[in-house]
Amino acid sequence: MDEIDEYEIRNKNIFHFPVKDQEELNNALFYMHSLYEYVFSGHIGAPVHEKLKNGARVLEFGCGTGTWVTEVATEYPNTEFYVVDFNISASNADNDNIKFIKCDILKKLPFPDNEFDYIFSRDQYNFYGKNTFYEYLSEIFRLLKPGGWLEVEYILNYHTVNGPIITRMVNA
User: Cystine design at 121: which of 4, 61, 78, 166 (Cβ 3.0–4.6 Å)?
Assistant: First the structure.
């Protein structure tokens, strides 16, 4: 996709959306979730499995349909999951170890510094312009504990020589 025509303005910030229809978007998000799960042979690419088994604090930055956090929270019941997004739907109901927080993810989030052991974010670049993307990264690093892990999954739309992960994704 060379250009994203659909956008929405919230609090003077422009959010770009690759599709307009919500059902189409949800289907695309589920497809992408399944593709990432296949490519990484599971839900998580970072080496945090032991930490999550023992109990940790995880932040998902932007959740889409909530599929990733729901599946991972079931797999790691001792871990606390927090999800921030500007659009939390009724289907994103809190459960025992997930807390959904509706907020402007371009502003300072309602957490203290160094709060999370693992921060996960997928395909968020479309929602930010060049200037606000750096603010997004700064906020993520403010929240990440020293020694914590950040996992950002995003498919770049450039013609490059693909490594093994992208090759596996393209051939899926």
Answer: 61
For the chain, domains (ranges, CATH) are: 6-170 (3.40.50.150)
HEC readout, 27-58: HHHHHHHHHHHHHCCCCCCCCCHHHHHHCCEE
pLDDT in tens, 51-96: 999 999 999 987 777 778 888 999 999 999 999 887 766 455 667 8
Encode pLDDT of 87-115 as tens digits.
766 455 667 899 988 887 777 889 999 99
Q: What is the pTM of this model?
A: 0.70
